[in-house]
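A reminder from the course coordinator: this example appears on the midterm review sheet, so study it carefully.

Given structure:
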C-alpha cells in the first residue's frame, strides 16, 4: 500500500515550489491507488498560524490536490515524547547545554583549523553533577540524537545512490531547551506510524534524510523510499518566499518573487 504525505509548516503561504512537492507526492499516491496525507507540521506554536493552515488547504483544493487524511503534529506531542523516551533508554539521546554563542565559537574554531563545523559532542563527557549544575544555571538543555558514525546510504528516487558520512554531520537537536519538539523527530515518528512509503521533498532535506534514516532504524521502523528534487528559485537565485500569496492576492503586486507571479498570474 503506497502512502505519501505533503507536510507543510503553516508559517506562511505555500508557494509554487511547495506545490511542486505536493503534486509529486499526490501523483505517486494516486497512480498507485494509495493514500495521500496532508500533514500539518505545526510543532512551532509561535510561528504556526491557523490562517496559514486554512490557506494551505484552500490552495491545495483550488489545484485539485485533494487529500485522503489530514494530520496535525500539534495533536501528536505525546507520540513524540514517547519516542524521545525510547531514544533516551537506548542511549541514543543526550542533553547538551552550550549556548548559541558557544556553539558559534566552536564552529569558527573548527573552520579556522580547516575542519568541518560538526558538534564536538562535549556534552557526552559531562558527569551527572556537572549536568545538574548547568541545568541550575542555564535551564534545561537541548536533546541531541547520537548518530552512529558510519556511512548512511540510500538509493534516492531522483538523485540516485547517495552516501553520507555521519561523522561529517552534527548530532541533530530534536528537542529544544523549552521542550519544543523539532520537525526532525516529529517527522520520523509520523512517517513510521502513518506507514509512509514514499517521501519526495526538496534537496535541502538531503542531510536531514541521512539523520532521519538512522532515527527511523533506531525506533524500529523501515525507512521510506526517499527522493529529493531540485529547488525552484527566483530570478536572482533566491529561495522562494512563503510570504508570497497565490490567487488570494488582492493584486499581483502583492506577490513576492517574480517567478511565482509569472507562473501563476
Ligand atoms: N515541514 C517540512 C518542510 O516544510 C517538511 C519536510 C518533509 O517533507 O519532510 O520543509
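Designed residues:
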Amino acid at each position: 500500500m503506497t502512502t505519501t504525505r505533503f507536510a507543510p509548516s503553516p508559517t506562511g503561504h505555500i508557494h509554487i515550489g511547495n506545490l511542486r512537492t505536493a503534486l509529486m507526492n499526490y501523483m505517486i499516491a494516486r497512480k498507485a491507488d494509495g493514500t495521500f496525507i496532508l500533514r500539518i507540521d505545526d510543532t512551532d506554536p509561535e510561528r504556526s498560524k491557523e490562517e496559514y493552515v486554512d490557506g494551505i488547504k484552500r490552495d491545495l483544493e483550488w489545484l485539485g490536490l485533494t487529500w485522503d487524511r489530514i494530520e496535525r503534529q500539534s495533536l501528536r506531542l505525546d507520540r513524540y515524547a514517547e519516542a524521545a523516551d525510547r531514544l533516551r533508554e537506548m542511549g541514543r539521546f543526550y542533553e547538551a547545554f552550550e549556548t548559541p554563542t558557544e556553539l558559534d565559537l566552536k564552529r569558527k574554531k573548527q573552520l579556522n583549523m580547516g575542519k568541518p563545523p560538526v558538534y564536538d559532542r562535549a556534552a557526552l563527557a559531562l558527569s551527572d553533577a556537572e549536568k545538574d549544575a548547568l541545568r541550575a544555571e542555564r535551564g534545561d538543555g537541548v536533546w541531541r540524537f547520537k548518530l552512529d558514525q558510519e556511512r548512511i546510504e540510500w538509493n534516492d528516487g531522483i538523485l540516485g545512490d547517495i552516501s553520507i558520512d555521519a561523522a561529517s554531520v552534527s548530532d541533530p537537536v530534536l528537542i529544544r531547551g523549552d521542550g519544543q519538539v523539532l520537525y526532525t523527530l516529529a517527522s520520523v515518528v509520523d512517517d513510521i506510524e502513518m506507514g509512509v512509503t514514499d517521501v519526495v521533498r526538496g534537496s535541502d532535506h538531503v542531510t536531514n534524510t541521512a539523520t532521519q534514516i538512522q532515527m527511523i532504524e533506531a525506533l524500529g521502523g523501515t525507512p521510506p523510499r526517499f527522493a529529493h528534487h531540485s529547488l525552484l528559485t527566483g530570478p536572482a537565485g533566491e529561495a522562494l518566499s512563503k510570504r508570497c500569496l497565490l490567487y488570494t492576492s488582492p493584486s499581483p503586486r502583492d506577490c513576492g518573487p517574480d517567478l511565482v507571479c509569472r507562473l501563476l498570474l
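The radius of gyration is 20 Å. Residues 94 and 124 are 7 Å apart (CA to CA).
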